[in-house]
Amino acid sequence: MPVIHLTDRVLIRASGPDASKFLHGVITCNVATMAKGEARYGALLTPQGKIISDFLFYSESEDAFLFDVPAERAEDLLKRLVFHRLRAKVAFETADGLAVAAVFGEVAEVPEGALYGDPRVAALGGRLVLPRAAAEALSSDAAPYEAQRIALGIPKGGPDFTYGDTFPHEADMDQLGGVDFKKGCYVGQEVVSRMEHRSTPRNRLVEVLFPQPLQAGQQITAGDKSVGLISSVTEGRGIATVRLDRTSDAKAENVPLMAGDVAVELRRPDWASFSMDWEKKVSELDRKFQGN
């Protein structure tokens, strides 16, 4: 596979003596424990716990970090980071001289740059941060990478979930290491923690398999009820947002799941651990009282 210039991504640099401490208290991933050259998956949330933007996050040094963010979200993310900064000694800037490339599959030669392993799933390969001039000499056809992403069931903000209206659990960020539930406070933490420990998300992004070609935007139905929406597709499979309670009811009642006149199958991604049967989480205290 080629090394692909991801033209829909932008890099934002955060630097300064307070960068690590400030960012650790604002975004969902753990910044304090990062080593140089390490990557994390994370997001900046609203106070209500919804995703403003997700991103891959790279440690350049002890006090310098890069956000690998969708281009459409970069301006708003930068503005909000500056808003939260207050008196912290940290500066933000768009790294206009740098670009991002995806490196995956069998690659004969990787251009010179900083290579970070994708922290979500190893099969996604890595992200190469390199000078923009060098990136522009690469292929910018992202179709092979998108096919790999969809085949692995990895959600993408925009096509698969809506920024500003989606909780991290609904975007499977909790399954992909995008939220550190042990690190303490960050913007939106209280809502996300409550969803993790006291309830279960109603919607999840899952894999959808189909024997005939389908298109993004098609509804998944069980009888006369809508149970989901297909958002990304590649050959024979895709990603869909589904109501887990409704799909569980359909399964219990042996009602087929359909996209138009095509029968589809829903499957939990290999990297996920949530229940497809809407099983209620049982706390350690519940187990104690139940004698388990």
UniProtKB/TrEMBL annotation:
Gene3D superfamilies: Probable tRNA modification gtpase trme, domain 1. InterPro entries: CAF17_C, GCVT_N, TrmE/GcvT-like, YgfZ/GCV_T_CS, YgfZ/GcvT. It comes from the Bacteria. Pfam families: Beta-barrel_CAF17_C, GCV_T. Residues 202-273 form the CAF17 C-terminal domain. Residues 12-105 form the GCVT N-terminal domain. The keyword Chloroplast does not apply. GO terms for biological process: iron-sulfur cluster assembly. Keywords: Transit peptide. NCBIfam families: ygfZ_signature. This is Folate-binding protein YgfZ. It comes from Xanthobacter dioxanivorans. The lineage of its organism: Bacteria, Pseudomonadati, Pseudomonadota, Alphaproteobacteria, Hyphomicrobiales.
